[in-house]
């Protein structure tokens, strides 16, 4: 029984962050994907909000006071050609938005609406207490797409009239 | 038969002094099993032998432990029994305001908490009960932790606001995402300002601005809460959460 636990612990440490200190035994560790996105976040920054091809999603989490901004640049065929994000919050929130910004690049605005928070959470191996971060990322994607669609509708409405 | 009647009468008198509701209940109870009382002699008529636990009869609201001290039976043992000096088990119906003897309202004087907190810990702290039973040491650990948690919750405005909402059945920490663009834009600009601030002077300036806002929204919360506009109250709390996070960020940077 002791052997099994010892082996399991070693395997756990091996699979998880190799940079974790030995004192991390038994503590919950960040998955290497999270650390990667936290230390090398992709697509940080912002676009000009007034650009007609830019959709801006701005969402917040009431429980922990996290703030996430996700912006998409969309071409005429409805494909997302570039993304930018800015997140104020914990490592998991930053990683979730970074992952989201990566995944939606190259997809159409309809396709990205099918991305689910569970997929992001699974990719980052988020613990239950951080699942709301992935939910926030999913909401940010939807918010950005909605904002883009609204802008398009207004622009088209203007042209028609 | 006469002995029984006097026994019942004295029991009634004694209980009535201590606990009127229980006494009335006992009175109605003793009408039925009258025969069983005949076996008890008047000498052994103590609350120990005839253990009518107040908890069974009373439907009391609030935090008063109706069953009294577990050790000596003293009726008014709130957290700690003053007559036999034993610590009581945690009663979940006791809320934090009761522990500090405060009214259940948002506006309190935080300075009043410190003194009462120290008084309680002088009686309840686990370090003081090393030579008592394991049961009492466990009670000490739980009560002391509860009092510490109570002090912490009531001291800070935000946690006090959330707690008082919780007492009214409204859970503020819903996982619903906020999408209010005005609020979020304001907070975004605030956080960006903090991130870009060059020196501690700029940071302190921002901090005082944020604390102004906190006070302002704290007042709005009181107003909304007292007028039972709970939806608005929740919004105030959400704003306060963001401002508090911003302050924490400033402190980290300083």
UniProtKB/TrEMBL annotation, chain A:
InterPro entries, alphabetized: ISCU, NIF_FeS_clus_asmbl_NifU_N
GO MF, one example: 2 iron, 2 sulfur cluster binding
Family: Belongs to the NifU family.
Cofactor(s) of this protein: [2Fe-2S] cluster
Pfam families: NifU_N
Keyword ATP-binding attributed: no
Role noted for this protein: Scaffold protein for the de novo synthesis of iron-sulfur (Fe-S) clusters within mitochondria, which is required for maturation of both mitochondrial and cytoplasmic [2Fe-2S] and [4Fe-4S] proteins.
GO BP terms: iron-sulfur cluster assembly
NIF system FeS cluster assembly NifU N-terminal domain sequence ranges: 30-154
Alphabetical list of CDD domains matching this protein: IscU_like (cd06664)
Superkingdom of this protein's organism: Eukaryota
Annotated organism of origin: Cardamine amara subsp. amara
Recorded GO CC terms: mitochondrial matrix
PANTHER family per record: IRON-SULFUR CLUSTER ASSEMBLY ENZYME NIFU HOMOLOG (PTHR10093)
Keywords associated with the record: 2Fe-2S, Iron, Iron-sulfur, Metal-binding, Mitochondrion, Transit peptide
Subcellular location: Mitochondrion matrix
Protein name: Iron-sulfur cluster assembly protein
Automatic annotation (TrEMBL), chain B:
Domain J: 95-167
InterPro entries membership: DnaJ_domain, HscB, HscB_C_sf, HscB_oligo_C, J_dom_sf
Taxonomy, superkingdom: Eukaryota
Localisation: Cytoplasm; Mitochondrion
Pfam family, one: HSCB_C
Keywords: Chaperone, Cytoplasm, Mitochondrion
Primary localization: cytoplasm
CC terms in the record's Gene Ontology section: mitochondrion
Family affiliation: Belongs to the HscB family.
PANTHER family (UniProt xref): IRON-SULFUR CLUSTER CO-CHAPERONE PROTEIN HSCB (PTHR14021)
Protein name: Iron-sulfur cluster co-chaperone -like protein
